[in-house]
Design goal:
GMP Synthetase, Chain A, domain 3; 34% helix; binds zinc ion
Length: 450
């Protein structure tokens, strides 16, 4: 639907919201996201050589900044004139081991957003994300969704985020922003069993929103529940899935159930990627946001089409810069120019977490993300894994840090017992080794037939 076809009240609301955000909200927050979305639109209209020159200068400026402001990078030339590939790759553990070395000496003057990551790898980490870098990611979404026919301020339903993080844990500022943006978070939650999913699909459909935004597994479960119930539930104009790979059979179900345009998002706050899959099947990176590399086991760049480790250099994060940062995802580099005609670099694929789940005796299936919260809140967990080999019990394996203690164990136990509705016996152990897949990847949930 074009802007012209939208109801007049909606168009008026968009204009008021965008103007109010630019004039009143952005100056107070000290970051520009609506304005930046407009800037991004114009940036992509520049000729390619201008965009590349802009990017080279942004990178040089970031490297120069790090050389004087960030202790871990003090060896870099002060003018930032160095080939990025000459820098060592850094990972999360290196930053955790020496956090002060990776912070800008000016970090207290640079606003940051507290972020959590590593839930999917069982390796939780709280870190400060520079607010300018956060705004860049958000602006990319605003711009991309507008290209896909959903304006800033169109009604949106959020699906699949943790209820506690989504609502109670949310600051007043964020609640206000979501209300102004007309984003509904009342259907958040991770249960992916048929009954919950069907109810969620019925309610979401009845809301008549322009867009659904949420976890791929959650929306896929809604779709298959609707199909199995033979219910015809009209979907929104646009469905954007995130947090997990959108497996092809999931996309087929969502297409069939809701008839909406479905777009997969791959985002990575630590580092800085906000990419969306196009009609030609490639993930379009934002060249003004970061430099994305895919490296083989020897640290050499993978050719197009070969799988390797995704490594990111953020062009905006100065509070705690990310230079050649290993995000822990495996990816495949796509062509430099996509056949769809949209400009910019691409990834062909990203390997994400598995679609595994914990099964309750009443048939409820809980996706791995159900369990992430408490592990993010405690200090004593390095990695964790849930093993289910009987229908009535699970074992939580903890790879503990020295900080691990009984009260952290109790907090985790209570959360897991609540989430599993007290239907499972929960045992926590710190002396069983964690299993990895045949491909060497950590698994959050290991299920075995009894
Ligand atoms: Zn494309």
């Amino acid at each position: 639907m074009t802007t012209m076809e939208r109801p007049l009240t909606d168009r008026a609301y968009h204009r008021v919201l965008a103007t109010a955000t630019r004039l009143a909200v952005e100056p107070v927050l000290g970051v520009r996201f609506v304005s930046r979305a407009r800037w991004i639109e114009k940036w992509w209209q520049r000729p390619e050589e201008q965009r590349e020159a802009w990017r080279a200068e942004a990178l040089r400026s970031m490297l120069a900044y790090c050389s004087t402001k960030v202790p871990a990078f003090s060896e870099l030339p002060a003018n930032g004139d160095i080939d990025l590939t000459e820098l060592a790759v850094i990972d999360k553990q290196m930053i955790i081991g020496e956090p002060d070395a990776y912070l800008s000496i000016d970090h207290e003057r640079l606003p940051a957003v507290e972020k959590h990551t590593g839930g999917s790898t069982g390796d939780p980490w709280n870190y400060p994300l520079d607010r300018v870098a956060w705004a860049e990611s958000y602006a990319i979404q605003i711009h991309r969704f507008e290209q896909l026919g959903v304006a800033y301020g169109d009604r949106r339903v959020t699906l699949g985020f943790p209820t506690s993080l989504g609502l109670q844990g949310m600051g007043a500022q964020k609640r206000l922003r979501l209300a102004a943006e007309r984003t509904d978070v009342s259907l958040c939650g991770f249960e992916v069993d048929r009954e919950t999913s069907l109810n969620r699909a019925i309610k979401a459909s009845a809301m008549g929103a322009s867009m659904w935004y949420g976890y791929a597994s959650t929306i896929a479960a809604m779709a298959s529940a609707a199909l199995e119930a033979r219910l015809s539930l009209p979907g929104p104009r646009l469905i954007v899935t995130m947090a997990e790979p959108l497996w092809p059979n999931w996309k087929d179900d969502i297409d069939a159930a809701f008839g909406s345009r479905v777009v997969e998002e791959y985002g990575c706050n630590d580092g800085g990627i906000m990419a969306h899959r196009c009609a030609a099947g490639l993930l379009h990176l934002a060249d003004h946001q970061s430099v994305v590399e895919v490296l083989d086991d020897d640290g050499q760049p993978c050719p197009e089409g070969a799988e390797g480790d995704v490594v990111i250099t953020n062009l905006h994060a100065r509070h705690m810069p990310f230079l050649r940062y290993l995000v822990g995802d495996r990816g495949i580099l796509g062509p430099r120019h996509c056949p769809c005609g949209q400009p910019g670099r691409t990834l062909a694929a990203v390997t994400g977490r598995s679609g595994d789940f914990v099964l309750l005796p009443d048939g409820t299936e809980l996706s791995p993300v159900t369990f992430f919260n408490p592990f993010n809140e405690v200090d004593g967990v390095r990695r964790w894994q849930i093993v289910q080999s009987t229908t009535d019990a699970i074992i939580i394996r903890i790879d503990p840090r020295p900080e691990w203690n009984d009260s952290e164990g109790q907090l985790i136990r209570e959360w897991v017992e609540d989430q599993t509705r007290h239907q499972l016996r929960v045992e926590i152990t710190t002396d069983q080794p964690l299993e990895i897949t045949s491909g060497g990847k950590h698994k959050i949930i290991v299920r075995r037939s009894p």
